[in-house]
Amino acid sequence: MKVDLHCHSTASDGVLAPAEVVARAHERGVEVLALTDHDTLEGLDEARQAADALGMRLINGVELSCTWGGATIHVLGYAFASEAPALRQAIADLHQGRWLRAEEIDRRLAAKGMPGALEGARAVQQGLGDSGNAPARPHFAEFLVRAGHVRDHAEAFRKWLGSGKLGDVKQHWPSLEEALATLRSAGAWISLAHPWQYDFTRSKRRRLVADFIAAGGHALEVVNGLQPAEQVGGLAILAREFGMLASVGSDFHAPGAWSELGMYRPLPEDLPPLWERFDHARATTA
Questions:
Q1: pLDDT over 90 percentage in the chain
Q2: What angle do CA 145, 8, 6 make, to 5 degrees?
Q3: Of the candidates 254, 278, 251, which has an alpha carbon nearest to the alpha carbon of residue 265?
Q4: Which residue segments constitute the domains of the chain, with CATH numbers given?
């Protein structure tokens, strides 16, 4: 059975509408899909309608931002009750924070002679499919390209939007413990997203995993797209050491990008798959 527990749509920073993500996943043989947009549940209803029409299983999913050790961390929640009050409130708070961040990016870019960034990024976002969420940095990058301020997205991030640059506006994310408490209150299964993408030493990554478990986390995303095989091996070692479940996903954002729906390195056979636990959890929007 092919599963994909990590992908994005126009509800956050993907380029395909939720229904299009589902259709593409189905075409690629995915049987169990979790749409995990950043800090929003906005695309789930559309995705579920598309999945039901195709006879495909859709798992409630979300990728929440939080902080740990001074860094921004992402956690993936699955098979939760989407109407849980604490989760809805957390999503509303994150929604407002993302708009405030977008407005600050706009002000900073305008001060450097690049006015109209928020309006332009919003137009990019709406061209892909309207969303009530704030435009993200990829949308701002596309605006900078179209306005002639940079040659391509890589230059936009290198000069203006990447880590530590002018447009890298920090948001007040909840703590790791707060984010996991919110997800647990909604009955979620929780996985630590792409643990190797954080710029941590081996010992710091191990401390993160220990704190994640202490806060109520269940799984490691051992496989994220076509990440190097040695990273999969290193994360598998951590999952075995801590007795964790394992999750997999493409982290799909756009066709032709670094990842594709249903495409990722194999999960080591001795690791217990997270998705087998969904049969014992609530996987509807009720």
A1: 86
A2: 135
A3: 251
A4: 3-91+173-280 (3.20.20.140), 105-161 (no CATH)
- Backbone φ and ψ of 235, nearest 5°: -70, -35
Task: Give the residue, 220 or 164, on which the prediction is more confident.
Answer: 220
Mean pLDDT, to the nearest integer, of 14-30?
97
pLDDT band of residue 131 (cuts 50, 70, 90) is confident
Q: Which of 253, 13, 7, 8 is nearest to 134 (CA)?
A: 13
| CB neighbour list of residue 109: distance below 8 Å, 6 or more residues apart | 115, 117, 140, 144, 160, 166, 167
Q: How far apart are CA 118 and CA 104, in angstroms?
A: 9
Mean pLDDT of 35-45: 96
Provide the pLDDT for residue 282.
Answer: 41
What's the pTM value of the predicted model, to 2 decimals? 0.88
- DSSP string of 120-186? HHHHHHHHH---SSPP-HHHHHHHHHHTTSSSSHHHHIIIIISTTSTT-----PPBHHHHHHHHHHT
Strands across the sheet containing 189-192: 3-4, 32-35, 57-68, 71-78, 189-192, 219-224, 245-249
